[in-house]
Write a structure and sequence with these properties.
It is a single chain. This protein is an alpha/beta fold. The chain is 47% helix and 15% strand. Strands 3-2-1-4-5-6-7 form a seven-stranded parallel β-sheet, with helices on both faces. Strand 1, helix 1 and strand 2 form a beta-alpha-beta unit. Helix 1 runs parallel beside helix 2, helix 1 packs across helix 9 and helix 3 runs parallel beside helix 4. The chain is globular. The protein binds NADP nicotinamide-adenine-dinucleotide phosphate (NAP).
Amino acid sequence: MVNLEGKTALVTGAGQGIGRDIALTLASAGADIASLDVNLEGAEATAALVRTKGRKSVALAGDVSNAADVDRCVAEALAGREQIHFLVNNAGITRDNLLLRMTDAEWESVVSVNLTGTFNVTRAVSRSMIKRRFGRIVNISSVIGIMGNAGQCNYAASKAGIIGFTKAVAKELAGRNINVNAIAPGFIETAMTRALPEERREAMRRLIPLGRFGSGEDVARVVLFLCSDLGGYVTGQVIHCDGGMVMA
Ligand code: NAP
């Protein structure tokens, strides 16, 4: 039912975690993949896994918060192709601290990577989508951007910002047949969350009606839906993928 053959996806932060699972899930459905990550080794490992699925794959080293890096990577991803059909803005970081202890560097790095990075890559990739009058953009937000969390004001602001950005760009690009949506994952098992102390993990688990943490594949399957024809009439939405943690 889902066939992405002949299409190309650019996934940021694809070197590990949720981004790698998104890249592999889209590749399994037939898409060629450009894996962009600040860590080239991770991006290359993902690209090699994509190739084992018989898909074309390129690894791109770049920092999404740096507009020049992004323009170079997008040009590389576009080499020899008509367009990038799917963009998944997944790269993200945390630098947690309480408000009064938060340094300028902690605030700025999180907002730069998570929010400005999403803007940089969307601006660069949407040019080819607009020309070809087709595109699907999926931005990875977080339940924290909806409900907030003590010790994460920088992260919450960046992820809430992604939601406003998603809705504005969805309205702007709808006339060009480009759908723009956000996913708000809950607690997903990755390096980012494995680093948390066990008592905090347990407290989080108690907040999840489905009683388990999510996997990268859980998020990747929602991305697949939004990129496929099945999601063709969905734009400007925030899809929660959180085991029922937040019910709006
Ligand atoms: P992760 O395991 O830390 O992976 C993030 C990837 O992004 C890493 O490969 C990282 O590279 C890369 N990256 C970091 N900064 C970058 C930059 N400036 N430019 C390009 N790539 C960069 O994180 P994850 O848990 O998979 O999270 C993926 C996304 O989901 C993030 O946006 C996160 O906020 C969101 N999310 C995660 C959860 C969760 O529970 N895990 C929940 C809600 C939302 P290095 O680490 O090698 O530097």
